[in-house]
């Protein structure tokens, strides 16, 4: 098969931000501004790239808030999903990040990576199922803006994860839900991830093939966390 995948694979499950679209960098910017605004009045060091990769990348939004703040020894009340973005709660901080991200997307738009559409088209031509599994609650907007929605047969996003009470990455729950929607056994599905937590999720779910997509210079870490192969762009698999 001209897709760089084992012959037993009949479906592909793609993370969105950092795999199909360049929105991962927009997420980084929104997280950095959110946390820096939170940390500065408390005399805390600023949010670093290493913080993003270790505690936030690939995780559901509120999980990322909890994980990062715990790394700084900070505990906030949970609050509720309806908290305003200036509330000092886990949900308030997460909602501020989401508001910032939506503003950035409105102003700058969304660009798919060069290899994304050619690879999705090749997967479609081979008759494999295509699903998107992402912690982002903005996935539909991003897919529409990037012109990728017509390829997607199943979507598990932050809205579905919250609605169905799924554990976020690095737990495999969201990828397993994607496989169920496509009607495929995990052993016959490939996972495509740029986040360490996502690669861990693919390995933990018993998926047949895990592709690490290295957009942040972490090839060895992706392999160590369970990737079978690492590429810098999906086009390398064609």
TrEMBL record:
EC numbers, comma separated: 5.4.2.6
Keyword annotations from UniProtKB, A to Z: Carbohydrate metabolism, Hydrolase, Isomerase, Magnesium, Metal-binding, Phosphoprotein
Superkingdom per UniProt: Bacteria
EC class: isomerase
InterPro entries per the UniProt record, alphabetical: B-phosphoglucomutase_hydrolase (IPR010976), Beta-PGM-like (IPR051600), HAD-like_sf (IPR036412), HAD-SF_hydro_IA (IPR006439), HAD_sf (IPR023214), PGP-like_dom2 (IPR023198)
Signal sequence coordinates: none
Cofactor dependency: Mg(2+)
Catalytic reaction(s) noted: beta-D-glucose 1-phosphate = beta-D-glucose 6-phosphate
TM annotation in the entry: none
GO MF terms, alphabetically ordered: beta-phosphoglucomutase activity; hydrolase activity; metal ion binding
Pfam families named among the record's database cross-references: Hydrolase (PF00702)
Coiled-coil residues: none
SUPFAM superfamilies the UniProt entry points to: HAD-like
Family membership: Belongs to the HAD-like hydrolase superfamily. CbbY/CbbZ/Gph/YieH family.
PANTHER family per record: 6-PHOSPHOGLUCONATE PHOSPHATASE (PTHR46193), HEXITOL PHOSPHATASE B (PTHR46193:SF18)
Name of the protein in its database record: Beta-phosphoglucomutase
């Amino acid at each position: 098969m001209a897709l760089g995948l084992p012959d037993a694979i009949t479906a592909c499950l793609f993370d969105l931000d950092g795999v199909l679209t360049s929105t991962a960098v927009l997420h980084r910017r929104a997280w950095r501004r959110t946390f820096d605004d939170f940390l500065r009045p408390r005399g805390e060091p600023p949010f670093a790239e290493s913080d993003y990769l270790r505690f936030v990348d690939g995780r559901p939004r509120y999980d990322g808030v909890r994980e990062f703040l715990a790394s700084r020894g900070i505990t906030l009340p949970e609050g509720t999903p309806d908290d305003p973005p200036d509330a000092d709660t886990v949900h308030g901080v997460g909602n501020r990040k989401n508001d910032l991200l939506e503003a950035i997307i409105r102003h700058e738009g969304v660009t798919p990576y060069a290899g994304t559409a050619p690879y999705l088209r090749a997967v479609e031509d081979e008759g494999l199922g295509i699903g998107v599994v992402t912690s982002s609650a903005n996935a539909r907007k991003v897919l529409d803006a990037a012109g990728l929605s017509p390829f997607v047969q199943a979507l598990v996003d932050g809205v579905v994860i919250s609605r169905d009470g799924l554990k976020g990455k690095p737990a495999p729950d969201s990828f397993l839900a994607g496989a169920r929607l496509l009607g495929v056994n995990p052993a016959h599905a490939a996972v495509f991830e740029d986040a360490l937590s996502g690669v861990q999720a693919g390995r933990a779910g018993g998926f047949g093939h895990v592709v690490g997509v290295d957009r942040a210079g972490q090839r060895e870490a992706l392999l160590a966390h369970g990737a079978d192969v690492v590429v810098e762009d999906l086009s390398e698999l064609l």
